[in-house]
Amino acid sequence: MDDRFFDDEQARIQRALNEAKKRELAQKYGAQFGDMASNLPPGLESRWLNYIEEFESQFENAKRVTVLEFVGNPIFKPVSEVPPHHLSSEVDNILEFLSLNCIVVDFLCDVADAEAYRFITTELMDEKIDDIRIEGMNHHFIYEEFHPNDEYDAKMFAEGFLFDLFHRETDFALKNVAQDELYDANGTPITVGQMKSEIASFLNSYAAFVSWKFEPVECTVEGDNATVKIQTDWIGLSAGTMESVTISGISVLRMKRSPYGGFDVIQANVAGWNHGGENIS
Question: Which CATH architecture has domain 150-279?
Answer without folding.
Answer: Roll (3.10)
